[in-house]
Amino acid sequence: GNSVTQMEGPVTLSEEAFLTINCTYTATGYPSLFWYVQYPGEGLQLLLKATKADDKGSNKGFEATYRKETTSFHLEKGSVQVSDSAVYFCALRSYGNKLVFGAGTILRVKS
Amino acid sequence: EAGVAQSPRYKIIEKRQSVAFWCNPISGHATLYWYQQILGQGPKLLIQFQNNGVVDDSQLPKDRFSAERLKGVDSTLKIQPAKLEDSAVYLCATHGQGHRYGTGELFFGEGSRLTVL
Fold first, then answer.
1. CA nearest A108: which of A15, A5, A22?
2. Which end of chain B has the lower number of beta carbons within 10 A, N or C?
3. Is the pLDDT of residue B74 over 70?
4. A34–B40 CB contact, under 8 Å
5. Mean pLDDT of A79-88
């Protein structure tokens, strides 16, 4: 079946450090891929998405590129801020427009 | 536009008791999902509605969980009787028709946190 694997956290970085959160997937065909973010006390919200191979999704300084060769969709940001502290979820769109999520990665950014 | 509303935000009950969660979707959003998020795990789909019909409830533990979406708007998720392993955050998510349908972008509520003692 379809599944998503994320790197385990928590990831702790200093402000302005480079961020990478790894995400790989297993799926039939070429699903759309997503990163959702959950800030403390808030609901999940879409951060970025990519719908086909080699697409790059970007938002708020975050980027992720859909790599079908490595079945990956790693999240990157060049310079993190304290306000980026949150839980990040990688997800794929399965049949019937259902999302399958990874376990989530906690990011903590220190000032 | 107003977001997805859920209540209650927090609920503590003892095992074998019952509990109900309510979700009010974004106006006009036809598709509604309930997800269960256990601490340290990603959300897992319980049930999907299209208007007031069930599209997929294959992951819903039907011996204790039930959900309905009368009139295709608000939805309730009920657990009876609750078990310790039901402790989780219950998330409601919706998306509508039109240009965004099929993009997979879901709009989530803040969730209802259930603790079963």
1. A15
2. N
3. yes
4. no
5. 97
